[in-house]
Amino acid sequence: MSASPFRPDSATDRLIMGLDVSSVSEAENLVKKTDGAVGIYKIGMELQFAGGLELARDLAADGRKIFLDVKLHDIDNTITRAVENVAKMGVAFATVHAYPKTMRAAVKAIREIDAGQLCLLGVTVLTSMNEQDLLDAGYVGPIPDLVEARACDAKTAGMGGIVCAASEAARLRKALGGDLVLITPGIRPVGHAAGDQQRVMTPGDAIRAGSDYLVVGRPLNQADDPRGVAQQITAEIEAAL
Which amino acid positions bind substrate, per UniProt (predicted)? Predict the structure, then answer.
């Protein structure tokens, strides 16, 4: 099995905290509370539209690993130029939707500006979606089949990894080998509600299934003691490795 250059080094490195809050001040407070207990901070759309892009630049410049969850999908030239600008921000990870032309346009940007430090991630099927949601969107076939098809195309396109549900990780690890990293949202420690996620798994089970990185949002950012919860999650990750 070949190894991706984006594979994590430690249990802490594997934990991605979703800064799913509505203001930069809230996000900065969470970073302070969890500094050293979390490997990567994810900045998604909610925070991006409240100053999160500037925060991403600042945190990256300060040496923290940032996952910019932009989920880009547009015409080829727009994607290429946008990814070039994302790479210049110094973030470690960025997402595009796992459509064939979108992924290839994103990879083109990385190659044109030699930005090999940026791991491009293809978002396969959102973990908030179930089979009926897929049918309503006009897709035919089980979710795992669509996820695998998109993941295999991501590998062909030259992407760095994919975003998928942990329940699909074992199947994808077999199909992809170690060339792409698997990042799995919808992670819920024991005792935490699933919320609007449909395809969820505990941290330990996700690691055992083949996930490289785990995205944890609400169980961390809504916790009274986010550092303590982060440490519990990394201990569970360590035990599963």
Answer: 20, 42, 69-78, 127, 188, 197, 217-218
